[in-house]
Each structure stands twice: as C-alpha cells, then as structure tokens.
Write the structure tokens for this entry.
Amino acid sequence: MLRYNMKGSRTAIFINPHVHLKLLLFMFLYVYNLICDLCSFILCNMLCRVLFD
C-alpha cells in the first residue's frame, strides 16, 4: 500500500511539471499572438495615417 502511494505521488510529481510547462507555453504563445496582432494593428493604423494624411 505504501509503495503504491509513493509510486503514485512520484508519477504525479513527474507528470505535473510537464502539464504546467505545456500550459505555460500555451498561455505564452496565446498572449504573444495577441500582442503581435495588437502591435501590427497599431502599426498599420500609424502607417495608414502617415501615408494618407
């Protein structure tokens, strides 16, 4: 019983960091894409104002 619990906790400790890393990576990519979209949108607006004013 004790061995099973130790094994379970050990596998949980091994699995969790990978899940957390994947979630962090996903969140980072999502935020990065949002920031890129926002920056490109602002840059396009600025360029349009400079070109067409």
